Amino acid sequence: MDLIATPRVSLPIARDHIERAARRSGVPGYQIDATVQSLSAHLGWDITQGSGAALLSSEGAAGTNDAAAGAP
To answer: What is the DSSP letter of 70?
Structure first.
């Protein structure tokens, strides 16, 4: 049985969920945007957009990595 690695796609995190998590974590309201930006940079995808958006833009709609294949 061959195991094929498929990328996991994460859904966007809603603003209200982010704000509730910030309150529970002790992040002040004025630091939420900077914290979200920092987390997104650390993860390599925008948590407010979901990871699927990054996969589509970097791999193309067909799911192939055009950059790796040498396509312009």
So the answer is: T
* Rounded CA separation 61/42 (Å): 25
Side-chain-side CA neighbours of 37 within 13 Å: the count stands at 5
Type of residue numbered 9: V
Q: What is the tens place of the pLDDT at every residue in 29-56?
A: 999 999 999 999 998 889 999 877 555 4
- The helix or strand, by DSSP H or E, that contains position 25, with its residue range, turns out to be helix 15-25
- 19-55 core/surface letters (b: 16 or more CB in 10 A; e: else): eeebeeeebeeeebeeebeeebeeeebbbeeebeebb
SS3 state at 40: helix
* pTM, two decimal places: 0.59
